[in-house]
What we know:
InterPro entries: AraC_XylS_family_regulators, Homeodomain-like_sf, HTH_AraC. The protein is mainly alpha-helical. The protein has helices spanning about 5-25, 30-40, 45-55, 60-75, 80-85, 95-105, 110-120, 125-130, 135-140. The chain has one domain (about 5-135): Homeodomain-like (Arc Repressor Mutant, subunit A).
Amino acid sequence: xxxxxxPRLRELALLRRVRDRIDRDYAQPLDVPALARGVxxxxxxxxxxxxxxxxxxxxSYLMTxxxxxxxxxxxxxxxxxxxxxxxxxCASLGTFSTRFSELVGMSPSAYRRLAAEDAAxxxxxxxxxxxxxxxxxxxxPARADLS
Length: 147
């Protein structure tokens, strides 16, 4: 043993730092080149490796975090859809609404109306678990034979 860290483990640690930064700073202006610079990787390499490890691109992961937070804010009911859009770090209401609809299956306005009715009387932790967005890879049916 040389005592040198395994390069693959080092890279996994860098990818985890990127994921943690997205989780923490989702409302900040983040993009893949900035995330890559933060861990001294190229944007292309970061995107490929992040997808290989986490099953989706850094941008997709970021948007999912933003939509999850938006769902919470919309359930509260004290902010408009536009206010929620900007509060979670999206710069475009159109992009936010499109991505929200893709992940949740309905527009932010429709979600806000339904969530207020459906969540009445439920504890917040239950509502968060039941009403979280489903990423594409989670929605895929399990395959018994992968060969």
